[in-house]
Amino acid sequence: MAKICMIAYTFYQSDPRVRREAEALAARGDTIDFISIQDSKQGPLTELMGVRLYPLSVGRYQGASTFRYLLKYINFFVKSSVLVTYLFSKKRYDIIHVHTMPDFLVFAALIPKMFGAKVILDVHDLMPELYICKFKKPDNFMIRLITWVERRSIAFADRALAVHIPHQNALVGHGNPASKFSVLMNVPDPRIFERSLDPALRTDNKFRLIYHGTVAKRHGLEIALQAVDSIKAKIPELEFLIIGHGDDFLRIKGLVQTMGLEKCVRFQDRVAVEELPGYLRLADVGIIPILYDEFTRYMLPLKLMEYVRLGIPAICSRTETIESYFDDSMVYYVKSGDAGGLADAILQLYQNGDKRKELVANSSRFNSEFNWDTQKKSYFELVDSLAGSKNN
């Protein structure tokens, strides 16, 4: 079995992709160490589901300053570089698996790579497009620099992972070789996200909408609040639960107060992955109101796939990436940024239980074709090929 160290600038317990990959390897007997950010909610936890945890006291910046983002990234990069080098000297890992962002975090594996370790770069997001979206700077020196860093980072790795085919195509369009990539889709872990048919889960008569994940401007929660505000009188038991945090959280919370929506909008801070289905199963409809731009056009939201996995009908902004996996019979599509259209969609699903059931039944086709059991096999094959080539 392989010895692997993973590195990610993330809170391990609440990050489903990194946990799914690490715990799948640990479950089959690989030795897995994980370097991440110390989460104040995590406490003294040092091992979870067979994965040895090495949290670093770095913290995450959430704001609009490019410089402060970079400082946090560099701080984590330096500390993780030192720690993985030290651990490698003791354990001689076969593979260092680095998760973005940032892309340059892969160079934390420089010393282990020099001494024979293979390197995987797991590219979660497109950093050039994200920079354009977040800082509203479409074409300048920073975009060229970020793209150059991405190419150098992928070139340094032995293999790179993309999260779906359009994502891989965009990375190739940045000048990266297609031969470097495998696709590992960010689909839900079936151990955690299992559909429940227990009616006792619902103990009230609320019509509950839910959103979970990053609270950022690009995710369109302001549009969702406008939609809720326009229909709250038409759905007496309406509730909108927002689970998560992010750099737009305080603004969204302030909007709830300004719009007088405190009675029907609730907030829940981020939760550990295994706790999440307990909240989601109480929902009638999942909301994914992302705003269309150069970054979000490539998103295939994990939250959408989790709703589908749990049998929750979803209303989603229409993008070409999501349409490449879900047709109109599987998801209730609305135009990005259209609060009126979103409000109409919510009302339609509130009034039409059969439509909700139809969406659930049709979207189950996605689960049959794209699921963690099949993705996991290809991931294991990649890991084994790299570990085997390292040991030959």
What report would you give on this structure?
By secondary structure, the chain is an alpha/beta fold. It contains 14 helices and 14 strands. It folds into 2 domains: 206 residues, 3-Layer(aba) Sandwich (Rossmann fold), CATH 3.40.50; 170 residues, Rossmann fold (3-Layer(aba) Sandwich). Strands 3-4-2-1-5-6-7-8 form an 8-stranded mixed sheet, sandwiched between helices. Strand 7, helix 6 and strand 8 form a beta-alpha-beta unit. Helix 12 crosses helix 13. The chain is globular and about 65 Å long. The model has no long low-confidence stretch (mean pLDDT 91).
Topology summary:
Layout: E1 3-11, H1 16-27, E2 31-37, E3 47-48, E4 51-56, H2 66-91, E5 95-99, H3 110-114, E6 118-122, H4 127-135, H5 141-156, E7 159-162, H6 165-173, E8 181-183, E9 207-212, H7 221-231, E10 238-243, H8 249-258, E11 265-268, H9 276-280, E12 285-288, H10 302-310, E13 314-317, H11 320-323, E14 332-334, H12 339-351, H13 353-369, H14 372-391
Parallel strand pairs: 1-2, 1-5, 2-4, 5-6, 6-7, 7-8, 9-10, 9-12, 10-11, 12-13, 13-14
Antiparallel strand pairs: 3-4
Helix pairs in contact: 4-5, 7-12, 12-13
Question: Which tags fit this structure?
Answer:
single chain; 392 residues; alpha/beta; Rossmann fold; 6-stranded parallel sheet; 14 helices; globular
